[in-house]
Design brief:
The complex is a heterodimer. Chain A is an alpha+beta fold. Chain A contains three helices and five strands. Chain A is 22% helix and 33% strand. Chain B has four helices and nine strands. Chain B has helices at 11-16, 51-68, 99-116, 136-148; strands at residues 2-5, 25-32, 36-37, 40-49, 71-79, 81-84, 88-96, 119-125, 130-132. The interface between A and B is medium-sized, with 24 and 34 residues.
Chain lengths: 81, 149
């Protein structure tokens, strides 16, 4: 079902998308659907490979449900330290 | 306690915050900016973090370490922004009654912080180009997919 979402991009994804944040309307039930639906924006092929996702500031699994009005944060592979 | 900072990390005062009359050991780790990686000359590093979640996940890591090992106190501080060669990017300190627990908890915290916190680093190379550490493959993968499609 179509959802209105706010999506935030970080690091490499932000540079690829050319912006920090945008509002999108997407056919998406899960965080993985959001990642797949916005591939042209973040530029990464798949959520595997250590990408992470948060919904409304909570780290979640890729099968987590998204709801109308959610903010989805897409994180490329992390590299702290 | 987990902290994200944008200014230089000073280990001295951080160490003092771990002092405890019942502690017989203090293990600390400092992650420094080195001038090379994967055979390339690195000039400086740029760290980007999503601080609200980095702090929350870092606190979780520290709680896990304190539950796993008999330690008295544990702290971690991570930098963000542009860092020069030799600067401290991350500091971990643990105090405990005995050294085994201090070493193990310190190691646990730095290992988990590196793979779980939403922090990214971009290396700036001597050749003038730059690259996100751990990220370039996903870009190449995406390009490969597009080429095959």
């Amino acid at each position: 079902m179509s959802k209105r979402l706010t999506v935030r991009y970080f690091a490499m994804f932000r540079e690829h998308a050319g912006l920090d944040e945008e509002s999108v309307t997407l056919d998406a039930d899960t965080a993985a659907d959001v990642f797949a639906g916005l591939r042209h924006r973040h530029g990464s092929a798949e959520p595997a490979g250590h990408c992470k996702v948060a919904i409304n500031d909570e780290l979640v699994d890729w099968d987590a449900a998204v709801h109308d009005g959610d903010t989805v944060l897409l994180f490329p592979p992390v590299a702290g330290g | 306690m987990m902290e994200m900072v944008e200014t230089a990390i000073e280990p001295g005062p951080l160490r003092e915050q771990l002092l405890d009359a019942t502690a017989g050991a203090c293990a600390t780790f400092e992650g420094w900016i080195r001038n090379h990686n994967d055979g390339r000359d690195v000039l400086r590093l740029e760290y980007e973090a999503y601080a609200p979640l980095a702090i929350r996940e870092g606190e979780r890591v520290i709680r896990e370490a304190m539950a796993k090992y008999p330690v008295l106190n544990a702290r971690c501080v991570h930098r963000s922004g542009l860092l020069e060669i030799g600067e401290c990017a991350v500091w971990v300190g643990v105090s405990a009654a005995h050294r085994d627990a201090a070493f193990l908890a310190c190691r646990y915290i730095i290992d988990e912080v590196k793979v779980r916190l939403p922090i990214w680093k971009k290396e700036h190379y001597a050749g003038g180009d730059s690259g996100w550490v751990n990220c370039e493959r996903c870009g190449a993968h995406a390009a490969g997919r597009a080429a095959r499609a």
